[in-house]
Amino acid sequence: MFFFIIALNVINCNIVCSRDKQVYCSKDSSEVKILVNRILIIGNDVTKEEVILREIRTKENDTTNIITLQNDILRLYNLGLFNKVEFLPIPTGDNRFNLVITVSENFYILPLPQAGFKEGDFTKFWAGINLMWRNFRGMNETVNLNFGLGYEPFIYANYSNPWLGKNEHFFTNFSVGYSNTNNRNVFREDTLNSILTKDDLQKYKINNFYSNFTIGKYLNKFTNINTTLGYSFLSVSDNAFGRTISPDGKDSYLSFTAGFNYDKRNLYNYTTSGTYADIKYYKFGIFHDQIDLNRVRLDIREFIPLNISENYSITFASRLVTSNAIGGKMPVYLRESFGFDDIIRGWKDNVFEGENLLGLFTELRIPVIKPFLVDGKRHIILNKFSILRNFSYRYGMYVTVFFDVGNTYNREDNITDVHFRNGFGTGLNLLLPFDVVARIDLAARRQNSVYYSQFIFSLASSF
Predict the structure, then answer these.
(1) Residue 416, Cβ neighbours under 10 Å: how many?
(2) Which end of the chain is more exposed for a tag (fewer CB within 10 A), N or C?
């Protein structure tokens, strides 16, 4: 998904945007105004034209420029519908252009293999199938049945529609599912500055049935507000005091979420420039006698490209995440933690648990092999398969240098007393087809004047 080209011959100036999706143009070139007469779309056998036209800011009988065209291409890639997008302005006279958009569509109805390593641990492997019908009705709707086996099995069904209405741009999502997870709680009231290992956790399983309905509205191309109504039914495999609010080992409750989201990343699965901000208010327990908890969670990510030369740049990536609880009694399974979904690299075998959370993650992303596409007909392996040879496949490689810091604490704790844990190291990220990022990190920490190191494996970018 990383190859495209914009070739313009405007006022005797040739402008080419390179295949790594960075624009290297002079300020004067980027400000050249192009009057678009018509927009012609080629290659959209399934995707309806309105899906493409509503995503781009370039319009017929209006002016555009290089930066707008660049951003339009990124928006089309982020739809996840196309493995290649090309823009070609063709002069028609009188300083007008026709814009030809050529797309190469992805698979839309297929079983997508998926796998991963939970908690960055090579021994906690899971694998499954995502039976997905993307671009349902040609309108970028998605229907899927997703399941995973192995470590912490799960299954869920989901329907999402990213665009309701023509100009209003509402969106909606509905999901229902089941998961079987290991206990992630240490059952200690005072966890401040404790260094606990996963061997300290009580051994039992949590069965969770849930359903969620979300509706939201985009305020502009990058900003939306959203609300979610959810239902959870949770039971433990070996009931004991404190594992659930109810004494019978079964909790059920309604939840409500209100959120604000801003997303201007260039690419979602492996970002090299842009900003992401997500603010959410959670209400756990609606009309519930025992569960009555509020939470505010903030997740901000910034990706700053640093130009080393005209055609080469590295990315400084950072993420700030914080969560604060307000209100009544908190069930243990709603506590925040590092060590599972989010880890402090260098401390992946440890658990930090509390009612509140604060973490900062930083990373330099250094391209060793810039992302590129291999045509399926020229692919050394896939060209032998009649279906697979008709698509293009993305590859690339980045080296990373990172530093993570964070910890959890309780509402009665003074944040100045929190001993924030930190880890650091380097990693290798391989960009593979189907938006897979194979990542291996060599992380280290300093504890009691001794340095400890560990390997972390993942099939996704760090953030």
Answers:
(1) 5
(2) C
E strands along 192-249, which residues? Answer: 196-197, 205-218, 223-236
Please state, in angstroms and rounded to a whole number, the distance separating the CA atoms of residues 236 and 244.
8
**Does 3.10.20.310 match the CATH number of domain 7-105?**
yes
Minimal CA–CA distance to 59: which of 73, 38, 79, 41? 38
CATH 2.40.160.50 assigned to 109-364: yes
Q: Picking from 115-129, 205-219, 224-238, 269-283, which range would have the lowest pLDDT averaged per residue?
A: 115-129
What is the model's pLDDT at position 31? 63
Q: Which of 344, 363, 375, 400 is nearest to 84 (CA)?
A: 375
Summarised one tens digit per residue, pLDDT across range 277-312 is: 999 999 999 999 889 999 999 999 999 999 999 889
Q: Which residue reads 């938006």 in tokens?
A: 435
Name the DSSP letter for residue 308. E
pLDDT tens digits for range 123-152: 889 999 989 898 999 999 999 999 999 999
Name the residue among 373, 411, 444, 443 with its Cα closest to residue 85.
Answer: 373
- In the chain, ranges of CATH 3.10.20.310 domains: 7-105
Contact 227, 259 (CB under 8 A): yes
Cβ(249)–Cβ(243) below 8 Å: yes
Cβ 113 vs Cβ 44: under 8 Å? no
